[in-house]
Structure formats: C-alpha cells, structure tokens
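During the second year of the project, the team shifted from modelling isolated chains to modelling whole assemblies. The rationale, set out in the original proposal, was that interfaces cannot be judged from single-chain predictions alone. As a representative example for this report, we include one of the complexes processed in the last quarter. Its constituent sequences, exactly as entered into the pipeline, are reproduced here:
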Amino acid sequence: MDHLGLDDFTRSIHYISNTIQENKGYLTKLDSFIGDGDHGSTIARGFTKVVEKIRKDKPESIAELLKDTGFTLVTSMGGASGPLFGTFFTEMSKEAEGKDVIGLRDFYAMISNALAKISRLGGAKPGDKTMIDSLGPAVKSLGVSLDKGQGIDRALKNMSIASKRGAASTKDMIAKKGRSRYHGKRSIGYQDAGATTIYLIINAIYKSISQKGKNEKINK
Amino acid sequence: MRKLINNPENVVDELIEGFVLSNNRKVKRIKGLNVVARADAPIKGKVGIVIGGGAGHEPLFLEYIGKGMADCEVHGQVFAAPTPDKIIEAIRAADGGAGVILLYNNYAGDVMNFDMAQDMARQEGIKVGTVRINDEISSAPRERAQDRRGTTSDHVIIKIAGAASEEGLDFKTIIKLLKKAIYNSRSLGVSLSACTLPETGQATFELEEGKMEFGMGLHGEAGIKRVNLMDADTTATTILGLLIEDLPFSKGDSVIAIVNGYGSTTRMEMFIVARKIHSYLGQSGIKIYATEIGEFCTSQEMAGISITLIKLDSDIKKYYEAPANSPGYKKI
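Output from the structure prediction step:
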C-alpha cells in the first residue's frame, strides 16, 4: 500500500470513535487526578456527534471528511479541548484539499500542519505535559520514515509507537499548561489525558489502516 | 451527589429554559440555543456587550443581561467554555452596528472559542473587540497578570460595561474603561469543601473536613495554600493582606468590596466576613464606598467565600451608580 484514499480515512474516523468510546472511563480517570475529570465524557460526546455527522453528510473527499470531523468536534465539545482536538483534523484537512489519495509525504505534511497550529493555539511547548508531547514524537517519527523511504504501514506503526512513548513520558513531567498546571510538582506521576487521547487517535489511524491491509491479503 | 436534576446531560438546556420562562418579558432565547439576549436586542447604534462562559457558576453570566447590563449571553456546558458556532449567534444578536465587545473570564478554553468566533464575525463585517477579566491574584504572579483567571469582579465589570454602552459611549472608549476597571480589580477566595460535576457525579477535588484552601479555582484548580480551618476574622485578614499587597492601594483610596459565596456558604458567614473587611480596611485608611454581599460567581455547591476589591475613580464610580435592570443585578 502506498496511498491512502477516502475509504481509509473514513474507516479511521470510525475506528477512532470506537476507541474513544471504549476508553472514555480511562480518560476521565486520568483527567480526574489533575484536571476536572470531564475529558473522557467530553471527547466521547464529540466523536459520537462526528459519526452522526459523517453518516448523514457522506463526505465526498478526504478534505471534506476531515473538515467535518474537526468542525463537529469544535462545536460539540467546548472548553479548550474542542478547539485543540478540532484543529488536529481541520488543519490536516487543509493539506488534503484537492487530493484524492494521500501518500506518506502528504500525510507528513498534514500532521505537521496540525502540530504547528495546535502549538500556536495552545501555546504549549514540548515537555509542558500536553497533547504536544505525544503528537510531536509522532510527527518526528513520520519524518524519519519518510527520509528512510519506508512504506506507509511501517511508517504508521513507528508513528504509533513513538506517540505511545510520548504519552507515557508525560507521567514524569510537571504540567505547565491547562488546569493541571496549578498542581505544579504535584502533577508528577500522572499521565496527561490529552496526550493519551492523541496517542489513542494516532494508534487508531495505524490500526484501521494496517487491518485493511490484512483483510485485503485474506480477500486476495 | 445531592443535586435536584433530571438527565444530567440536559442540565444546561433545562436551566436556560427555566431562566427564559422565569424572565419571559425581559429576555429571549436565540434559535433554541443556549444563547440568551435582552428582549430588545440588538439596539441600533449602541455598542453590544456579549458575555459568557461555562455553566455551573450561576448567576454568571446569564442573569446579567438587561437594560444597563449586557445585551447577550452564551452559556457553555458545565465548567466548559461555549463553542464558536453559538458565540457567533450571540454576537449577531447583540450587533446594533456600533461594534460588539466580547467580555469574558480569562481561561484558555474561553479564549480559544471566543477568538474563533471573533474571527468569524469579523469575516462577516461585524466590528468586534475583546476584553478579558483577570482579577484572581493567586493564579499567576503580578508580572504574568495576563495568565490570571477571571472571577467575582465580573459582577461589577459587566455592570460598568452595560452602563457605559447604555449611555452611548463608543467602542474604543468602553474598551479602555473596562481595561482600567479590570486593572483596578483584585480577588482571592478560600474553599472549605469541593463541588461535584452533574455529568459525572464526581467531586472535582478532595478537601478533607477541617481544612481550607486559599486560591482554589472555580473548577477545582489547585490553590496556593491548604491549611487547617481558620476563623472568619483570620481568613478575611489573610485574604485582604494579599489583595492589598497585590494592587498598591493607598490611604484615602476608595473601593467597592464584594463578599461572594461560592455556592453553599450562608449569608450569616458572609456578613461576618464583611464586618472584618470594614474594620481591617478602616485601619488601613481605605474607604469602602459600597459593599456587595451574595452569590455572584459560584462553583456549584462548593463552600467558601471570595473577597474582591475594586479601586474606584470618578468614571468607574459613575457607571457603577448608573441604573441597571437585569434578573441578577438591579440598581435604581
């Protein structure tokens, strides 16, 4: 597989939504240690609306699908997480505009775009114990895969591993952004909920796409 | 959880419905959304004042719309900022052609959502500006005042914004006036018990019996100091000492003092605190022009109080004294 199409991205969005619903309780628990404990239910509400929206609208391009996803998250979640997670998808959508298929280079551009805009919007830097700490390593890993000429499957797998490590690394960090920052050093020992959600999203993208690869082989 | 509610998912919708029905001659709901406006909005030629934020802090912000107060309010979910698609409806409903000012508390979520709506409105050709309230002194040091949260001074700042726009001041002058009034406002509170979120039924933090925490935020943001429960006089003295140190008050200054209950504090306790504020400021040579006591900025059933001091000048005093008629704030 060297390209991703609308079907791949549509399957990814459904996969992400299922993953988020399954992990709702876990995310809420993470958020309740150093946040206000509503992250799981908020993001789950957002993705429920996303699935409703794309079932109804049946987007006809990758850009439209991602834009619908992002805008629905912004309008249904609220708080800071609505704009931040919504931006992840709307910024990817901008780079996908006019493209029927997405190669690794395009995907790298899309996700780099998302990282840059989220960093600007939230003002967080690497090490601040935020979603940047699991998104940054994912972007970096994709860049390495691109340089090495790896295939999409391998690149997405490495991206997921890097993101997981990034999310885990937030455990030892002191929160500098978001409501958890008021806990200062007391935030050490807890993994950041936002960083974990980004890892779940990235892993869902990898899983949904690699599973399709397997299914195709079986079908053939 | 001890809350008299129906389906927790519907608390915000249902509270808006109840509010609008209870004030049906004075306010209207916009397009069935959690956006409410004074009945006669938009008012042609008047600068529109849009306020809003997360739910769960009632009377903030919705009870502050009316004549001499804000034009339009947008309510988020409990403790979560409202979304840009609703904020833009509030801006449109408040737009009388003289510009719209977005006046809200300085929290990251509110800033992102209101900024997005501001961009959308500007693309439609509406003149929009932003003023953020940041009076809570424990949330960041003075040199990073732009990071401070907004709290109880809303009660008076919204009043001043409404009065100034009602009198016909222009867009720029109102923004300047509000920035000065906000700079002159300082708040700090103490929490005695936690609050629970209706959606999850869980407490936002734990605070054991017999303890109190200074600087605890309205959403369970950790405070600056957790101590054994102090008496009312010592508590008031501690808060006032920090407030006065933060905004250089001088002898002869005159202030509005607000004693705010967070949700389950009795008026009895508030008056006991007010008594100490009067004796303490009297000794410091600071004159209290007006004292306001009540629940203005709450955090569900959290116990505790906050004290706000707003230093007056002739402008602030004038608009503070102007008439106001909103469900949550009336002045003749």
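Chain B is about 30% helix and 25% strand. Chain B has two domains: 10-184+318-331, 185-314.
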